[in-house]
Amino acid sequence: MKRVYNFSAGPAVLPVEVLKEAAEEMLDYKGTGMSVMxxxxxxxxxxxxxxxxxKDLRELMNIPDNYKVLFLQGGAxxxxxxxxxxxxxxxxxxxxxxxxxxxxxxAEAEKYGKVNRIASSADKTFSYIPDCSDLPISEDADYVYxxxxxxxxxxxxxxxxNTKGKLLVADVxxxxxxxxxxxxxxxxxxxxVQKNIGPAGTVIVIIREDLITxxxxxGTPTMLQYKIHADAxxxxxxxxxxxxxxxxxxxxxxxxxxxxxxxxxxNEKKAKLLYDFLDQSKLFKGTVEKKDRSLMNVxxxxxxxxxxxxxxxxxxxxxxxxxxxxxxxxxxxxxIYNAMPYEGVEALVAFMKEFxxxxx
Length: 360
Ligand SMILES: *Cc1c(COP(=O)(O)O)cnc(C)c1O
Description:
Elements: E1 5-6, H1 16-24, H2 44-61, E2 67-72, H3 75-87, E3 92-97, H4 100-109, E4 114-120, E5 144-147, E6 149-150, E7 155-156, E8 168-171, E9 188-192, E10 203-208, H5 226-231, H6 241-257, H7 259-280, E11 285-286, E12 297-301, H8 305-317, E13 320-321, E14 332-335, H9 342-358
Parallel strand pairs: 1-13, 3-4, 3-5, 5-8, 8-9
Antiparallel strand pairs: 2-10, 6-7, 9-10, 11-12, 12-14
Helix pairs in contact: 1-6, 2-6, 3-4, 6-7, 7-9
Bound molecules: pyridoxal-5'-phosphate (PLP).
Pyridoxal-5'-phosphate (PLP) binds at residues 10, 75-77, 101, 147, 151, 171, 173-174, 192, 195.
């Protein structure tokens, strides 16, 4: 068996220990004689899986009791609609545009109310995070929306915006569980799990209890109401059961590694190795303002498209997969999520050095 170093932005690398455990339990989950894929979501075995997953996530993120944890479907993109449908009481929201995902979320919200784009980094191809210390927050805004880590452009809010008392809603798809977070600063934290936690198909929504009401926009489908899912403990209909099971295993893996403090340390060490190399390289360079660099997604270029393509091709042949940058940015992007080992980044940097020498 051969495993590659997978730098995909998502679906992305998962811990090998988790995959092995899942393989061992594939045919007979803990004496049930069946796979988790084959069991009722109302069974005792599955009830234990989802209860334990929530408990471990709460412990990892230190989630206060007045927040609910929901395991939903529809991808992060479905939240682009679900959030305004449930939160737009005044039909106004403020969006900070730091990339494609925030842009898409704003465009979707616009179907349901007035969207104010109160800041943007579009002027420099989203290569930085705008100053959000004193934004023109709308008086009647129902919430302020950010995409906290910009998967495509490789930027991250290292400081949350000053929302002047308004509710903060954050898409954390690509930085979920990468470092400690103060949940109390948010109304909603959500993310698709396929970047840093588990298989595609599960979305985790952490939502403050007082935001879960029956007072939603007229016509909101049952399946898009937070209250329906919260009241049913994420079991209103069949949940993404296998995905939840894998997420649960990843939560345990992170706990065993020392929790989110340890993850942060590990991620900083990995990212530093790559950024330090980029900063001194004569061939490669990072595309993001240093202060706003993401620990998870690292875009870089040579400045020559043909050379970029050559690099991606030779890297692939050497066992480094999915280094091609997003189609809207070009160049390369290394996503170095929680499960990417230090050795993977070390090997990549060594390969980049060799390529640099060969193509000087
Ligand atoms: C990948 C991604 C999305 C879209 O996720 P889907 O689950 O495919 O809808 C949204 N936001 C961010 C930050 C992402 O990285």
